[in-house]
């Protein structure tokens, strides 16, 4: 709560238009104690990108590789298609 008040004192009152920033900051605070020593979470990693232009466009092969990587993580086996 203290951080919320301090944030509002610096950047103004939090309105529904900026809830994405508020929850990104909350995500940073939740992730911080679980990171390796000396590392800090970054706001851009937790902030939703609303603009399509801000996100790089991926090819079908890149998307397939990402899905295979996720599946390999769940199965515990190296990524085999």
Describe what you observe in this structure.
- The protein has helices at residues 2-11, 19-31, 43-46, 60-75.
- It has 4 helices and no strands.
- 53% of the residues lie in helices and 0% in strands.
- By secondary structure, it is an all-alpha fold.
- The chain starts with a helix and ends in a 6-residue tail after the last helix.
List keywords for this structure.
81 residues; mainly alpha; 4 helices; 53% helix; flat
Short characterization:
With 81 residues, the chain is mainly alpha-helical. It has helices at 2-11, 19-31, 43-46, 60-75.
Q: Approximately how much beta-strand content do the residues carry? A: under 5%
Helicity range: 40-55%
Distance between the termini: 48 Å
Order of helices and strands: HHHH
* Main sheet properties: none
What spatial form do the alpha-carbon principal axes imply? flat
Class from secondary-structure proportions: mainly alpha
Low-confidence stretches: none
Number of strands: 0
Radius of gyration: 18 Å
């Amino acid at each position: 709560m203290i951080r919320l008040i301090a944030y509002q004192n610096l950047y103004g009152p939090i309105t529904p238009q900026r809830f994405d920033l508020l929850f990104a900051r909350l995500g940073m605070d939740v992730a911080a104690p679980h990171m390796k020593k000396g590392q800090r979470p970054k706001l851009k990693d937790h902030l939703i990108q609303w603009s399509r232009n801000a996100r790089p466009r991926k090819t079908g092969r890149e998307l397939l590789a990402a899905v295979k990587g996720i599946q390999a993580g769940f199965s515990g086996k190296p990524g085999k298609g």
